[in-house]
């Protein structure tokens, strides 16, 4: 093995830089050259790259974002794009490509297998934590920390004004962030894919209104609803209107948005990224089509197909914890 290429792809996640660093330093140790391509798969389409040295990556562990930039890439859905990416890898005599990203990025990797015979390794990095075969993905812990700190601040105003707050968190179509943040902040309500579906929204609304009214009778605290993005029709403003229409309940809306993707990675994410990066370099020399993960304290290798095709539901234990301590539910 002489040369490994790296890309960061899809939504950036805190800890991506720590993963790049770990790969480059491991390669340096094993006298393997590292090339970083910019802007995810687009860098491979456009031959936009730089060699990555140990000196360059040594000081980046604490930085959010990614020094390699990131992007989504529609061309990876077409044969022409896949062929072009394969050509670039061949031209640079790359032996293995390590993709740091989420499930969309891994699907691109699987499609590339048809056109390129080098080794393909995935490192799961997305704030959404929606990949199977790893307990957590790089970036998830940091996003949960950021959202928790933000909601703790919102809570002060919620309590001072005895106000209902609807706080939307990210997660695309999964509720890992919503449930973890909801529990960590003691949210009065968590509305996510795991406990609401499109057919039950009327019932959810009725229960929510009852819960808000019942809390008003018993204490003078604020009422924080943590809402998963893409769940409620018309988003948090839709829910605000529904509460107003249902029982004249006033609420304030706060969309946490991209602050959840940014900032310095938490220690957990830095350590996870470091461990997965080291194992990715080992795996790149022995196998292809695998995702490196960490399950029950052990660094693991799983077939990338399993990682992308299997669902990773929010832990039943977390869901039960919410129901057990959530007053009035
Ligand atoms: O996958 C990470 C994520 O931040 C999701 O939580 C969110 O739905 C999506 O990316 C937003 O994507 P974009 O930055 O392309 O709008």
What does this structure look like?
With 329 residues, the chain is an alpha/beta fold. The chain folds into 2 domains: 3-139 and 265-309, 3-Layer(aba) Sandwich (Rossmann fold); 141-261, Rossmann fold, CATH 3.40.50.460. The protein has 12 helices and 11 strands. The protein has helices spanning 16-29, 41-46, 54-57, 79-91, 103-112, 140-161, 176-185, 201-218, 235-247, 267-284, 304-309, 316-325; strands at 3-8, 33-37, 49-51, 96-101, 119-124, 164-169, 189-191, 223-228, 251-255, 290-295, 298-303. It has a 7-stranded mixed β-sheet with strand order 3-2-1-4-5-10-11, sandwiched between helices. A hairpin with a 2-residue loop joins strand 10 (290-295) and strand 11 (298-303). It is elongated. The relative contact order is 0.17. The mean pLDDT is 96. Bound molecules: 6-O-phosphono-beta-D-fructofuranose. 6-O-phosphono-beta-D-fructofuranose (F6P) binds at residues 11, 102, 126-128, 170-172, 229, 261. 6-O-phosphono-beta-D-fructofuranose is lined by residues 11, 102, 126-128, 170-172, 229, 261.
